[in-house]
């Protein structure tokens, strides 16, 4: 199972060494910090050093906003919100600073929003495991070698769909 993200827009005049990135089941970190799995150059420093976390839960990839300036999903005018997650599907777009990233593939069992039943209204976000927002969510070592330990320490959100299916 893999997640492929492609840059469809980036800051003007910035050379992009890698216009696409493939995440595996260990996920990873996106940001301007040199210790991120996918480093996005950002001379204006709009992106956080560790802007977003990509992870897997219930066989679905998700993006988690770990930034100050937000991760925007699809056409939303509101950011996800710090420590909030969104399950990714092919066709999604992510806006981070001056970057727009397209979700190209989410694995062998490809899921698209058009394939999904109409969603019920989302409940209000609740802090995972009863922790307040801003609580300590685990290690701050974002190096690639620490990915597995980092992901295993993040609190799990309540399930919203049966295991093995994306909402």
Automatic annotation (TrEMBL):
<feature type="region of interest" description="Disordered">
    <location>
        <begin position="109"/>
        <end position="167"/>
    </location>
</feature>
<protein>
    <submittedName>
        <fullName>FHA domain-containing protein</fullName>
    </submittedName>
</protein>
<dbReference type="InterPro" id="IPR000253">
    <property type="entry name" value="FHA_dom"/>
</dbReference>
<dbReference type="Pfam" id="PF00498">
    <property type="entry name" value="FHA"/>
</dbReference>
<feature type="domain" description="FHA">
    <location>
        <begin position="28"/>
        <end position="78"/>
    </location>
</feature>
<feature type="compositionally biased region" description="Basic residues">
    <location>
        <begin position="145"/>
        <end position="159"/>
    </location>
</feature>
<dbReference type="InterPro" id="IPR008984">
    <property type="entry name" value="SMAD_FHA_dom_sf"/>
</dbReference>
């Amino acid at each position: 199972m893999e997640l492929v993200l492609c840059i469809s827009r980036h800051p003007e005049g910035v050379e992009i060494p890698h216009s696409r990135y493939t995440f595996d089941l260990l996920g990873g970190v996106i940001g301007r910090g040199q210790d991120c799995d996918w480093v996005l150059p950002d001379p204006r420093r709009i992106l956080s050093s560790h802007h977003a976390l990509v992870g897997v839960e219930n066989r679905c990839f998700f993006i988690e906003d770990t930034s100050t300036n937000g991760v925007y999903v699809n056409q939303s005018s509101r950011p996800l919100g710090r420590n909030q997650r969104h399950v990714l599907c092919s066709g999604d777009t992510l806006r981070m600073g001056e970057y727009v990233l397209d979700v190209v593939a989410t694995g062998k069992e490809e899921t698209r929003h058009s394939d999904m039943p109409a969603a019920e209204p989302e409940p209000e976000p609740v802090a995972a495991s009863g922790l307040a927002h801003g609580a300590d969510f685990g290690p701050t070592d974002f190096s690639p070698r620490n990915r597995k330990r980092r992901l295993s320490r993040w609190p799990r959100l309540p399930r919203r769909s049966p295991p093995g299916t994306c909402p």
